[in-house]
Design a protein that fits this description.
single chain, mainly alpha, 3 helices, 0% strand
Length: 97
């Protein structure tokens, strides 16, 4: 068994740990140990996930592309500058227009 001592120099982190430990009815040491245990097990699980080769795990579309029959089906056909259009969309989204 290993003994580890931690000195928290971040007041916000200390307050968050104390608050979360109280919410879970644990003392801070138990809460920190549980958090470290959870983090370590998550890292181990992440390392066990195999990396897939996209060339072996992808497939071509099943149906060929078909152009729209009607001109009204063409979305965004009036946009000439897609970068400017995207910039305007972002600005409108943040302003909630």
């Amino acid at each position: 068994m290993q003994t580890v001592q931690i000195t928290l120099q971040d007041a916000q982190l200390e307050q968050a740990i104390m608050r979360l430990a109280q919410q879970r009815r644990q003392n801070p040491q138990e809460f920190i140990l549980a958090a470290v245990r959870h983090y370590v097990f998550e890292l181990e699980q992440h390392d066990k996930i195999p990396k897939l080769d996209p060339l072996q795990h992808s497939q071509a579309p099943a149906m060929p592309f078909q152009a729209p029959k009607d001109a009204s089906d063409l979305m965004f056909q009036d946009i000439e500058n897609s970068a400017e259009f995207a910039k305007q969309l972002r600005q409108r989204a943040w302003r909630h227009e």
